[in-house]
Amino acid sequence: VPKYVNYGNGYNFPFGIAYISAMLKREGYEVHCLNLNNLEMNPVDAVTRAVHEKNPDICGTGAISPLIDAVKVITDAARAAKPSIINVVGGGLISGALEKAVRLLDIDYGVIGEGENTIVELADVLGRGGDPKTVNGICFLNKDGNFIKTRARDPIRDLDSLPWPDYEGIGVGMMIDFQNIADETTFNMMDDPRSMPMIASRSCPYACTFCFHPIGRVYRERSLDNFFEELDFLVGRYNINHLYICDELFTAKKDRLKEFCRRIKKYNLYWFCQLHVSLIDEECIDWMVDAGCTHAGYGLESASDKVLLSMQKKITREKIEFALKTTYDRKIGIQGNFIFGDSAETLETASETLDWWSENREYRISLSYLQVYPGSPIYAQAVKDGIIGEKDGELVQGPINVTNIRGKAYEYFEAKIGVFRETLVIPAKLILFEKQDEYNIHRGYPYRIEWECPRCGYNNIFSNAYVDRGFQSQNLRFSCRDCRGIFDIPNLAVPAIIHTESEEKYAKATELRNSGKTGEAIPIYQEIFRTDFPYMKRPDAFVMSCLDLGNIFSKVKNGEQEAAFFFGQALFYRAYNPAYHISYALALMREGSMSAAKLHSQTARRVARADNDQLFAAIDKIDALITASGGDAKPGRYFIG
Hints:
Helix content: 40-55%
CATH architecture of the largest domain: Alpha-Beta Barrel
Distance between the termini: 45 Å
Shape: globular
Oligomer: single chain
């Protein structure tokens, strides 16, 4: 299993590899599992040791395309430890990229789509010296270096025929032991979360343009009898108190949801699933609440019907509104994203989505960018349009601009989405943030955190909370145990980052600027800005450099957008500083983004100390200017082209 996280942290269970291992074991093959996430050892050393100790014929691994580097660490180490080893890789990495992935990874065979039957046939053929071209669903390079792709394998229709995942081999018990109350909002309901992931179906019946389904396009469901038989085993073996259903779409049938809720209720488990908004009505949500569901995920993506149509989402804003209101009113926590950057996205459609988002903040929908993954329809179109070049030596993926927003306009657009996502917090009332005694060598000290829910007034107490994850560097997002509303807490456990070199450079730049040599100071500020710092952490020198650059460009003719960019970057890493929200709001007003400015004046009011009269007076003045300018009108202004 590729290394996803540092040892001691929770992670997503690798179902694909676990099913492959279980299938091979059922067919009588000797299988040794190596989960690099459960080891403190360096991945190269761990793979090398395992190959030397076990002397395997085949090294099998797999992942989605963003983890190609982690997969390559495994295949390279295995090859170095035993040159004759047969490297086999599967998952979305292979199914989406095919020849490119095979060549980049220098592997012997790639498994396309579902691998359970394929790997058994491939192992049999290799074991008896047969022709691998007779195995459906694989790809490889022949002895002449030509890429070979065999016939596609039919999807596995009867999911009940598969063995359960090899939980023991992968070490799911250790994964569960690593889980912590602060790791994600679905864990907030329990002091000691023991969450078990399960799969009840495969693929999805929809065909969204940005999605890629590594296990095929045919949607299939396990029987509930088979699912609950596995659940009985897991409850008894691992003493779980939470069920995380990992399906792309839990069910497309209302009757199946009703029956599932009836059967899951007796287990007294909290649980999470992902649903399509078109399925939801009051009755469905009532069943789920009664059966212990605390959070539900929805694929939303946009509040613009134009963009939803382009994405082939088969939903409308009206359906989104109904599903979210119904879910929220019945006290189920919501997980959902708006992803900006579809090919139909414009500054107007993005503003349309942000207008809706700003008026419905209680649902806590996250903001993100469209990820263009190999194998997805939008990736294929981007290649066809020449946006993505098929270069040797790299696998292009991630947030690629497939919109018609170009140049600096797109850079500013992307930067603003990031600032909105990270800084437009809705803070709860913090009562206590106290370090506890029991030190963990991998995660540091835990904390006792008490906070009052702004929605229902419930006093939440989270004990033994580890708040050391990179994405938690300034903000903690927690779900209320009573109403399931989701709110923000400043992470008071993170120490200030000290970077002596940047501090010295900043002092030099400040001296130059104060002596009237602003032109000489700017490159030094920009050098600090471009410095590679730890993920989501920036020293004061970085923040102050951004503020100084913002002030400099605000005095330059036509420098309003550049000024707003740098004020936004300062705020990005100091979301709880109300003065930075005010500075950014003023910069947004100067460039004409009045609706965006209003969002930040509102947030400044939320995070400011109640006794800071001077600050509130400044916020009142900004609000008055926004109102006078017509900034409350719709459609709102968030971006400048």
